[in-house]
Specification:
alpha+beta, about 200 residues, eight-stranded antiparallel sheet, four-stranded antiparallel sheet, Umud Fragment, subunit A, 2 helices
Length: about 200
C-alpha cells in the first residue's frame, strides 16, 4: 500500500477589498453628474417652458403688487398668439430706467383698432368691460406722441397696465411686436400670502 500524497484543495481566493479611494472617486463623479444633469434640466425649463420674474413696477396694481414674483409660461405662445386678457412679460421698448422687462395686459391684437374716449378703452369701436382696473379711467398719457385711434399692425399687440392712472404702456410706446413677448404670466408664487393664479 502506497501513501497518496496530499492533494492541496483549491479554494477561491478572497476578494481584495475595494479601494476606499476608488469608491469615493466614483461617488464624487456620480454626484457631479447628477448636479450637472439637474442644472441642465433646470436651465432647459427656464429657457423653453417656465421662467420666474420679479415685477419691477406698480403698473399692474392691484392684480400684481410691486415686487411680486411670478411665473411665466414661455411654451404657450409656440402654439398660439397672445390674446386679449392675457398678462404677458415682454422686453421694455424703452428701457430708460433699467427695467429691461415689463408685465402688462393684452388689450388688443393685430388687425384691431384701439381708441380712448371718456376714460374708456374702445376696441373696434366697442367699449371694453375691464373689472381689473377697478374703475380707474383709461386716459391718454401727457407728453405721449401716440395719436388715437391706433390701428394695431398684424404681429403686434396693444398692452396696458391694470393701474391705468400709473402705467407707462402702449399709450406711451405704442404697439409691441409679439417677438418681444417672453411668455404669459400665470401664477404668483411669492410672497406666500399672494400665492395664486393670475387673472
Amino acid at each position: 500500500m502506497t501513501d497518496t500524497p496530499n492533494t492541496p484543495t483549491i479554494t477561491d481566493a478572497p476578494e481584495a477589498p475595494k479601494s476606499k479611494k476608488h469608491s469615493f472617486a466614483r461617488q464624487a463623479i456620480e454626484f457631479v453628474l447628477t448636479i450637472a444633469i439637474a442644472f441642465l434640466v433646470a436651465q432647459s425649463v427656464r429657457t423653453w417652458v417656465i421662467q420666474p420674474y420679479v415685477v419691477p413696477t406698480g403698473s399692474m396694481l392691484p392684480t400684481i403688487q410691486l415686487g411680486d414674483q411670478v411665473l411665466a409660461n414661455k411654451f404657450v405662445y409656440r402654439f398660439r398668439s397672445p390674446q386679449a386678457g392675457d398678462i404677458v412679460v415682454f422686453d421694455n421698448p424703452i428701457p430708460s430706467r433699467g427695467e429691461d422687462t415689463l408685465i402688462k395686459r393684452v388689450i388688443a391684437v393685430g388687425g384691431q383698432q384701439v381708441d380712448l374716449k371718456d376714460g374708456k378703452v374702445l376696441v373696434n369701436g366697442v367699449a371694453l368691460v375691464e373689472p381689473y382696473t377697478y374703475g380707474q379711467p383709461s386716459d391718454k398719457l401727457e407728453m405721449s406722441r401716440i395719436v388715437f385711434p391706433v390701428d394695431i399692425p398684424v404681429g403686434s399687440i396693444w398692452l396696458m397696465g391694470d393701474n391705468r392712472t400709473s402705467s407707462q404702456d402702449s399709450r406711451w410706446f405704442g404697439p409691441v411686436s409679439i417677438s418681444a413677448v417672453h411668455g404669459q404670466a400665470f401664477f404668483t408664487y411669492w410672497p406666500i400670502g399672494r400665492f395664486g393664479v393670475l387673472k
